[in-house]
């Protein structure tokens, strides 16, 4: 397991190094890098993090139910604790599916990349944005622990109907605090993240599997 973690981390760093090396010759990577610079110059990563932590409803890592953490990792990023913000396996799979579909249908984003997107960028499916998101992800992984990244993610993820963060979602959909959520309710909220407008508890009446 340890060797696998090291190999994945090295591969992730190699990919980032490669991207940095071709910034000047690749229009797409260059545009993404400029997007990243513009975003973080407008508000730095530390300042953006502090801004998020000051928002109403922000909860700490210890206030997030263990079952929720387990389910969100299983659903969104199984290798979260083993990569450096970029998951080569998930990305390769997404690229293959996009090629087969002939369009951008799957992103292969890690939780860190999703956090980066939610912190700075729109949800528009452009490769330049994916590159910018990747640069922010590396910045986050360098500055924060995995638990801190997961904490931020759970506080910024969108759950539909104007709800951002687990506390708002628990209050809005079930009238409870996060630690009072049942396993069924947790499962429904994790499912909601995949498509907040379509899968939130008020819109989707099926049973997530």
UniProtKB/TrEMBL annotation:
GO biological process: response to antibiotic
Keywords: Antibiotic resistance, Signal-anchor, Transferase, Transmembrane
Record flagged with keyword Transport: no
Subcellular locations according to the entry: Cell membrane
GO annotation, cellular component aspect: plasma membrane
Pfam families to which the protein is assigned, alphabetical: Transgly
Membrane protein topology class: Single-pass type II membrane protein
Lipid metabolism keyword on record: no
Gene Ontology terms, MF aspect: peptidoglycan glycosyltransferase activity
Domain Glycosyl transferase family residues, every copy: 51-203
Entries under PANTHER family matching the protein: BINDING PROTEIN TRANSPEPTIDASE, PUTATIVE-RELATED, PEPTIDOGLYCAN GLYCOSYLTRANSFERASE
Name of the protein described by the UniProt record: Penicillin-binding protein 1A
Organism (species): Lacrimispora sp. BS-2
């Amino acid at each position: 397991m340890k060797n696998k973690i090291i190999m994945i981390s090295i591969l992730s760093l190699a990919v980032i190094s490669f991207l940095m090396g071709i910034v000047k010759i690749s229009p797409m990577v260059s545009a993404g890098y400029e997007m990243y610079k513009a975003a973080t110059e407008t508000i730095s990563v530390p300042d953006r993090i502090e801004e998020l932590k000051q928002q109403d409803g922000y909860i700490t890592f210890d206030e997030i139910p263990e079952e929720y953490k387990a389910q969100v990792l299983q659903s969104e990023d199984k290798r979260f604790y083993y990569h450096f913000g970029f998951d080569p396996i998930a990305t390769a799979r997404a690229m293959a599916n996009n090629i087969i579909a002939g369009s951008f249908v799957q992103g292969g984003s890690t939780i860190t990349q999703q956090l980066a997107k939610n912190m700075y960028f729109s949800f528009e499916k452009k490769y330049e944005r994916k590159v910018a998101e990747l640069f922010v992800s590396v910045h986050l992984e360098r500055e924060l622990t995995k638990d801190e990244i997961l904490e931020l993610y759970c506080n910024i993820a969108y759950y539909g109907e104007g709800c951002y963060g687990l506390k708002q979602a628990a209050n809005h959909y079930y009238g409870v605090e996060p630690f009072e959520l049942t396993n069924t309710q947790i499962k429904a909220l994790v499912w909601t993240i995949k498509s907040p407008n379509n899968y939130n508890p008020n819109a989707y009446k099926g049973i997530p599997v």
